[in-house]
Every structure is written in C-alpha cells, then in structure tokens.
Amino acid sequence: MKKLLLLLILSFFSAQSFAGSCPDGSDPVKSVSADGTYFVYNCGGGSNNTSASTNSSSSASKSSSNKSSKGIDRFGGDSEIPEEANPNDETLKFYLYRYLYSHNIYPYCGNSRELFCEDLPPQFTHPVESSKNPYQFNSDLREDKYITQQMQETALLSYLLYEDGKIVIDEITPEDRFGDMFRDSTKFHSQSVAKTLIGYVAGHAICKGYIESVDSRFNDWPALQNTLYHNQKLIDVLNMAAGTQEYFIGSNKFKNSSRSVTNPTVQDAMENELKGSKKSTSIYNYNNMNPNVVGSYLIYKIGDENFQQLLDDVFKKKARIEGDVFFLKNISAKKDDISIWSQFYATRYDYLRIAKAMLDDWQNDTCAGKYLKTIHERRINKGNWGGRPGTRVTLPEGYAGFFHTGYKGMGSRPVMGMDGYGGQTILIDFERGRIVATQAIHDNMMFPKPGGIDFKKISYEKIKNGKPSSKAKPPPEPVVDSQQIIKERNAAIETEKNAKQYWDDYYEAMDEKLYGKAQGILFGSSADGSILLSEDFENLDQRDIRVSDYGKNWFVKEDKDGN
C-alpha cells in the first residue's frame, strides 16, 4: 500500500483564490473535525465543537437530510454528523459504522497500546483491562412506552434508568433499526463525558495523596511555565474557570493557529499556541484543553506506572467493569508522550457501572465521595455563556469539577451530569439515588423538530420528578459463574471483530455499486496540516482516486518512507 501526503494549502494572500467555489460565491471555511483527525473545508462553516460549545456554526444546508430523503449524506467528508443536522436513517447508520469501526478499535496492535493497526498513523491509548469480578446488576424492569417510541423514532441507541439499586428501564436500539450494529458488547465513544471521568480520576489521586487538595496549584510542571496554566488552582481548571477565553474559538480550536485542541499534547500546545499566554478573568469558559491539562499533569506528577494503577483502581477494582475500557492519547502523541484527552470507550453497561461507583462513593461518604461533595460545594455559575436556549446543555446553570450541575427547577439538589456530543449523557441524582444514562448516534438538540432526542422528558424529568430512593436494603448482587463471564467476554470480542469485517465489506460493496469503485480512503493528519490519504495506487488501471479540490490548491509531497 503506497501512500501520498496531500497538503492542502489555503491561499491566504488572495481573496480570489476560492471565488465562486461555494454555491453562494463565498469562500470555503477551514475548520478541524470535532475529533481532531483531519481538516474540513465547508461552505457556510461547520460545527466542530462538543455539544457544550458556545459557537454553533453548522450551515442550514447541513440540516437538509431528513427521514424522507434517500441515500447517505457524508456531509462533505466530516468525521462527525454536524450538530444541527437532521440525517436520515441511512446516514445515521453509516456514521454509526464510522464511530464504531473506522478507527480499527479491534484488534489492538499487540501490546503497544496502539489503536490504529493498519492504514492510519498510530493513536495510542490508556487501556484498562476488564475486572475478573464484574459488577452484576439486579433488574426489575418496567415498560415505558414513550422511551420505546424514542428508540423507534430517533437516533437513540441505549437508555438505562437505575434506581433503588436496580435497573428499572433498559432499552437498546431494535435489531431492525441499529441493533444489527450496536449491541450490549459494543464500545462506544464517550465524547465529553470523559471530561468528568478525568476529574473523577483526579479525585482519586487526591485520596491517594498524590495531590494535596482541589486547591493545589500547577506550579511544579515545567511544561506549564510561561503559560496561563502555570500556578493555577486545580479547582479553577476543573471548573472551566481558568481564564482561557482569549485563546480558543469555541471549545476545540486554538484562536492563533486554528489547530484542533485534541490534536497536540499539552506540552506541544504550551510550547506553541499558549506560550506567553496570560490568565484572563476566572469565568466559565468551556474548552477541551482543561481536561487534557488535568489528566496530563497527573501522568507527569505520578508517572506512567502509578497512573495506570490509578486507572485500574478506579475502573477495574471499584467500578468493576465487564469489558476493557480506554482513554485516547492526543492524536499526534507518540507512544511515550505524556498525553491524554477526553475521549473514552466503554460499553453501555460499563458506563452505568462507572456512574454507580460515583453514586456509591457519595452515599457511603468515601474519600472519593467527599471529593465529589467538595466539587459540588465549589461549583460556579455558568453565567451568560451563550448556549443555545432550550437545549439540554442550557438546563444546567452551574459547573462543578467537569460535571454539569445546578439544573433548572432542582434548586441546590446534588444532581450532577455528564454530557457529550451527539447525545452521550449521564445524570446522577446523588440525593435520591437515581441514574439515567443515554447513548445516541446523533442529537441536534432541537426536539420536537426532527433530528433531536427528547432529553428533557426521558432524562431531565425522570431525575427532577423522581421520588427519594427506597429505604429498603438493596437486593444482593447476583452470583455469576466466573468461567461463564470469561466465555461471554471472549465471545463478545469475537463478535465485534466479525462485525467490523462485515460492515467494512458492506460499505465497500455499496461504494462499488454506487461509484464503480470502493471509497476505501482513511483519513489522518500530520502536525503541519497535511492530510494523509492511504490508497492502493498499484491498481490504477482498475480504479481511480477521486478528490474534491476547492480552488485547485492541492499539493503533493513525498512521505518520510519515500512513497
């Protein structure tokens, strides 16, 4: 497989270089995909921030897809469905395929912690192996016709309601909808839910004595010197109140370079985009850098081995996960770089196991529970931060240690939420002992308009109106044979490998039928802004390479291996 690096260079000095290249005559807008994996050129702009971003710039044209339309809308090659879009079911399924399988999650590349195994540059992970004694949930299921309807009519994939020590509502996308691709063993991205998980790990670092308290300062990591993060209090960084507002566009783009925040390691960003930066007013300013700083600082402070042990203690021993889980390192990170960012993968039940561990910590007043209570007490008001009115991200008016809190109509109740792009949400009522967890392919947050999920009714109101938990002793944990657990776990891994191959073949065959050739091009990005396209150039008599060239500004350069 030969590779070409295609370098897209915008002609910044000629306003005419893109004249007429968009339908309305405007210039294409350069942005970065929400996961930071490649550059995007869109007419009318694009939304590349997480769901809590203050800037929403998706064009109306990206919302044109609907249930009655036919075919797959690939949104110009965007790695994620634009936030305001209303995609049809074919498009939703295609993007579910991309989210699950396009990054070669299965199998890992040996023991190198490398996520991409074949065509893409390596992206490394912080993996946690499954528990030998995974927590077994009790269930006392009841029907909720409205949630069932949401499963049939929206992009919702999973809904779990936990109360009184049991799962009482458990819905997964039907087989004839997305269930032939998404199943109980599927590891799905967390999006910004992982910010909260990094904060939870930081709480355990305090409990182990690695960090003194939430008021400890970042004053001993040389990488942060001469930047706005030097000497900051941990609590201010956790609360998104680090005075960063002068340096970011939305949540995931540096203002002075337009690089994706999730692309470089913290040290790289401090040496480039944030060198000489100064802290502004300590107000709420949501961004993707703060969790990167907290997680990377922990790795620097305690070392790789202790950090791995910390992850094992939180997820493997305490939450007792059933499958393996992992955080991603930054996209451009090398294997041994100090690096982590807020993207995490786990199964639907393992997300619930992690949330239950948090609930247990709070209710049992453990050290980690005291940490959770401390960050809730130290919460800040978000103020007029610019979120779209009426959406799920404006229901919480406060922020506490990478948790959303202060939900409207709930007063000072300790209800804390995690929220990620596309409908990944977890709400925990620490006082009344209730958890609601959702996963989705997409949520444009416009319900009841098409493309949205009714978060307010199925999640927010379930928590707001939920009765206090029963005083009765919770039922004992079910006993499951350990050998059966191992057998089921191995079967799940094999199922996911086979599923990836099936859907790879399915979409390749679809492309062959539609275009007469497979569109088997995988995207990556290099530090200089190049886009790496991997393609088979040895059979050009049988197939062509096709690209969209805005303004004829493609440049070809030789890769390091001479290809």
UniProtKB/TrEMBL annotation:
PROSITE patterns: PROKAR_LIPOPROTEIN (PS51257). Residues 51-69 have a biased composition (Low complexity). The lineage of its organism: unclassified sequences, metagenomes, ecological metagenomes. This is Beta-lactamase-related domain-containing protein. InterPro entries: Beta-lactam/transpept-like. Residues 51-84 are annotated as: Disordered.
